[in-house]
Design a protein that fits this description.
By secondary structure, the protein is of the alpha+beta class. The protein contains four helices and four strands, in the order αβααβαββ.
């Protein structure tokens, strides 16, 4: 469902041919020699975002943006700390109802 909605949104915004949307089991993705991306989006529960944070950011190009979503407001601070401990900083955040999302970049990025 998430992939279908993401493709529909990309089509509506005229960027479908410029992005790559996939569905994979994060815990089975390789940690070595991975392709890097300018933007990585992960809409996952907080415990998975925290447990797999190194695998997630290993796919982010230097200067790229990481967008995390699907996080309960009450758990966002834990996720934020976990990513900040790996050298990222929160640059934008949005809340809606009980959910919160955040965009992160490496601390040295502008």
């Amino acid at each position: 469902e998430a992939v279908r909605v993401a493709r529909a949104n990309a089509r509506q915004n005229g960027v479908l041919r410029q992005i790559h949307i996939t569905r994979r089991d994060l815990t089975r993705l390789s940690r070595q020699r991975v392709k890097k991306y300018d933007v990585v989006c992960a809409n996952l529960i907080s415990n998975l975002l925290i447990a797999e944070r190194e695998r997630i950011i290993s796919r982010l190009k230097p200067g790229g943006a990481l967008v995390l979503a699907g996080i309960l407001k009450t758990e966002f601070t834990q996720v934020q700390r976990a990513y900040e401990n790996l050298g990222l900083k929160l640059v934008a955040s949005r809340a809606e109802k009980e959910w919160r999302s955040g965009a992160f970049v490496f601390s040295g990025a502008s």
